[in-house]
Amino acid sequence: MSEKTLVGIVMGSTSDWDTMKEAAQICKDFGVSYEARALSAHRTPKELEAWLADMESRGAQAFIAGAGAAAHLAGVVAASTILPVFGVPIPSKYLKGMDSLLSTVQMPKGIPVATLAIGEAGAANAALAVVAVLALNDAGMKAKLTAFRATQADKVRNAKLPELN
């Protein structure tokens, strides 16, 4: 039997990959198995539902969902599973991602979507949040996350400001 796929990364269209690849990269860096798909809550709802069910049957522990404009992919994912869902608002052409942020964060009581920042930082942080959840029951993952955080702190401690001319 193959290894479980722990994280499902879903985006509304292939054009969202430039943002969502940040989540995939963090998963890869931490050795977290993932599957990334472009599926639309509005254009391919049946395929999305089937994929979510399949991911759960293969051991998924969380989903990261990114969508732009007023698309509500993360909300549809959250309504379809009891697993944690981390929403990533994708920058949009006209409202620069504010529409994406509001449609992702403003969920009705009882169907949570943990919503991250707009864009690449949000995608990376969504994956880091999933890593933190996985680290609750995985000592190896906890050690990797602790080391990552220490490296982040070292970068700040070792940073040098430019000299004035």
From TrEMBL:
Q: Which reaction does it catalyse?
A: 5-carboxyamino-1-(5-phospho-D-ribosyl)imidazole + H(+) = 5-amino-1-(5-phospho-D-ribosyl)imidazole-4-carboxylate
- Tell me the Gene3D superfamilies matching this sequence: 3.40.50.1970
Classification via Pfam families: AIRC (PF00731)
- Has UniProt tagged this entry with the keyword Transmembrane helix? yes
Membrane spanning stretches: 62-90, 110-136
Q: What is its EC number?
A: 5.4.99.18
Q: Which residues form a coiled coil?
A: none
Keywords of the record:
Isomerase, Lyase, Membrane, Purine biosynthesis, Transmembrane, Transmembrane helix
Tell me one GO molecular function of this protein: phosphoribosylaminoimidazole carboxylase activity
Domain PurE residue range list: 5-156
Q: Which residues bind substrate?
A: 13, 16, 43
| Pathway membership | Purine metabolism; IMP biosynthesis via de novo pathway; 5-amino-1-(5-phospho-D-ribosyl)imidazole-4-carboxylate from 5-amino-1-(5-phospho-D-ribosyl)imidazole (N5-CAIR route): step 2/2
InterPro entries per UniProt = PurE_ClassI, PurE_dom, PurE_prokaryotes
Q: What does this protein do?
A: Catalyzes the conversion of N5-carboxyaminoimidazole ribonucleotide (N5-CAIR) to 4-carboxy-5-aminoimidazole ribonucleotide (CAIR).
Q: Which family does it belong to?
A: Belongs to the AIR carboxylase family. Class I subfamily.
Q: What is this protein called?
A: N5-carboxyaminoimidazole ribonucleotide mutase
Upper classification of the organism: Bacteria, Pseudomonadati, Pseudomonadota, Betaproteobacteria, Burkholderiales
